[in-house]
Specification:
4-stranded antiparallel beta sheet, Alpha-Beta Plaits, 3 helices, alpha+beta
Length: 91
Amino acid sequence: MTHAIVLIEAERTALPTLGGILADVDGVAEAYSVTGEWDFVAIVRVPRHEKLAETVTGQIGQLEGVTRTQTMVAFEVFSRHDLEAMFDIGA
């Protein structure tokens, strides 16, 4: 499984609707509207590394209103929730 964080800049007119559209893209696990330089953050999870380009460039980058993206591929995933679950013996 390949995980990536995709930062998305959007046209102002797309801001009210783009979040829901992003969430419906195959491979997007979560989409957030955010403050700062970027307008949205999408968490992408795909089964194979090769599928990442199709998802980011072929789908997200082609959405109406998307002006720019920056993708960061995760090397490792760390989650306090996952660590706690691993050591939970059902107390």
